[in-house]
Amino acid sequence: MVVVGIIAEYNPFHNGHLYQLEETRKLFPRAVFVVVMSGNFLERGEPACVDKWTRANEALHCGVDLVVELPVAFCVQPADRFATGAVLLLKKLGVQKLIFGAEHASYNFKKLAQQVSDVRGDSVKYNESFAAAYQRAVEKKVGHAIDQPNDLLGLAYAKANLQLGDFLELIPIQRKGAFHHDLCLEKDHSLASASAIRARLAKGSIKEIAAYVPQITSVDFATRKLITWADFWPLLRYRLLTAPYEELRNLYDVTEGLEYRMKQQVQKLPLEADFEDWLGAVKSKRYTYTHLSRLAVIVLLQVTEEEVKSVSKNPYLRLLGFTPKGQKFLHKLKKRADIPLITKASQKLRKKFLSVDYRAGLVYELACMRVQDHGKAPLRITAPSLSRKKR
Amino acid sequence: MVVVGIIAEYNPFHNGHLYQLEETRKLFPRAVFVVVMSGNFLERGEPACVDKWTRANEALHCGVDLVVELPVAFCVQPADRFATGAVLLLKKLGVQKLIFGAEHASYNFKKLAQQVSDVRGDSVKYNESFAAAYQRAVEKKVGHAIDQPNDLLGLAYAKANLQLGDFLELIPIQRKGAFHHDLCLEKDHSLASASAIRARLAKGSIKEIAAYVPQITSVDFATRKLITWADFWPLLRYRLLTAPYEELRNLYDVTEGLEYRMKQQVQKLPLEADFEDWLGAVKSKRYTYTHLSRLAVIVLLQVTEEEVKSVSKNPYLRLLGFTPKGQKFLHKLKKRADIPLITKASQKLRKKFLSVDYRAGLVYELACMRVQDHGKAPLRITAPSLSRKKR
């Protein structure tokens, strides 16, 4: 059985994701499609626009056979660690082929990864970000810039694959229509970036996005609240105002005196300030907005150094949902998996494996008002409907 | 100069408080009236209905000459410790006479205090509250029950006075019209309890309370948001959901495994639950609602054992405001005071003395949207107006 893997956030699930699935399905018509998906907090340091169950359900109705949650500890991370965590889960799932979107699908990602395998991009200059140092080092090695977000993620997957025994065939798919950073919906066709769709949703324009997402996503947005940082800003602000420095310092990746900077800036803000005002106040040449947004999630969820290490040492596969085809695959997987396959967040599992994920769910619930983990079983989609809206 | 002291919360300042001031002014027409007032969080474990500056301003316009803030660490405490902190400040202020309302003004509070000076009421039974054990022990000693809230507070003041050298003349004033627990406004006259007034305000009936408060209080409520536990419940809930047990255990008075009870109950609540639902879930025979509400404030503000000890060891007088008469008194006080007289919450003072009070202000601001401490100077009332509304 061919097992095709995808690493995704689906924030939200849109026509570009559907296009990727349809194109790949043509290449591997009998394969099982397995997705490792971020949960309720994402790689760029932001809450998901709708909860993980809603997004998993959309994916399962649009061609995915099995959705596994990427643990928060792997997810709210820079590209290289995000990729390492996700590719590790793909290996444990027995995935053979990794499909990913790229701005330059013509790149030979495996070869590039070999060229930059020793590039770590540790920045010694204090006025330069890790990301900038990394891209500069990569350019020096390969002879040209790699600076588009999906190309960089693809390279990170390829590097993680090399580290984990080169078990994957890498299949880049040319991104069409909308680049990730584009903020405008393109009126001519049916593709728009996730951020363009979210921006339009934030203005309350559900009708306008209908052409760019499958029908199931449209329906979900009509019945669910759009979650943004604004929902969690009062909680983050409260935590920063009241936390002693030593409790902040104990959190993952709070280094170089960031506990002082984060707390002092929040104290200086006017009472009507929002999350973006705080980010702007904390920003420096050393830290990108994304880096600081991730730190904000770490503080919000109180993720410690120790907890991140624990997930890396004891990874697990948390199932969010499957189709009948996915279920058949699962039966086989159960016999050979060498890490836990988790279907329910029982009290025992919450202590050993899911402590951060469970806590993230409890915080996310405060905004989305839907139970995230307690007593939740994986989704079982009996009749997936490829519900793409006609163009 | 006669210095008359009052210990108050003024939550809100109403006609009963005005009556107390007017009656006492008749007894001591030339005295300076000094009030030690709770700040933004109160003895019964709740946020003040309007901020401390607003309440101090009302008092200064209605006959008080000087308002000093009772530190949060003394304030969110059972009656005996609340009284000890407040009476200590009265001593440092040079107060000679303490006026207090009592349900039984005929009691000889000094004599009662001598009779019960060794009664501590430590409850050894785990199904009995501290308050119940104390009242039982008092009744045994004095031969009759003392169970009305203001009588009990009066007794606590009298005990603290004995401990601190018996420097006060105790002057109980018979409470008129409305007992503290009465929840109905009494239509026949102009007196109603603070809780009755708050209950009516919570229903949005500003007009209905006009007869029971001075005009200045009416005007304040017309222009300010009424603050209740509902404003802080999302923050408390978030903190309980995310705090590790060891961080909760480090907080003041979190003993006997209460960290488990508080956290586990918050996890079990439905998403739409409110503060009262949580209190009800945590309640047991061992803990009164008031005890648990105070703990909730301790958790909300992250007050540690160490911080409470530090305030007891290094007390201070934080000035909230004064009239010209109060200012004259202050000039003399400055020369003889043996603890700091604080007019501004400077960064240096915030570290040494005001850490908890400043943090309490930062949290309260999130609800009331008015700066509480940063850069604030004491109120200077040049022309106090006894602005009681005509009956």
TrEMBL record, chains A, B:
This one is known as tRNA(Met) cytidine acetate ligase
This chain is encoded by the gene named tmcAL
One Pfam match, given by its short name, reads: HIGH_NTase1
Could you tell me what this protein does? Catalyzes the formation of N(4)-acetylcytidine (ac(4)C) at the wobble position of elongator tRNA(Met), using acetate and ATP as substrates. First activates an acetate ion to form acetyladenylate (Ac-AMP) and then transfers the acetyl group to tRNA to form ac(4)C34.
The family this protein is said to belong to? Belongs to the TmcAL family.
A single GO BP: tRNA modification
Q: GO molecular function of the protein, one example?
A: tRNA binding
Whether Nucleotide-binding counts among this entry's keywords is yes
HAMAP family tied to this protein = TmcAL
- Which residues does the record give as ATP binding sites? 7-20, 101, 150, 175
| Record-linked InterPro entries | Cyt_trans-like, Rossmann-like_a/b/a_fold, tRNA(Met)_cyd_acetate_ligase
- Source species of the chain: Liquorilactobacillus oeni DSM 19972
Q: Which GO terms describe its cellular component?
A: cytoplasm
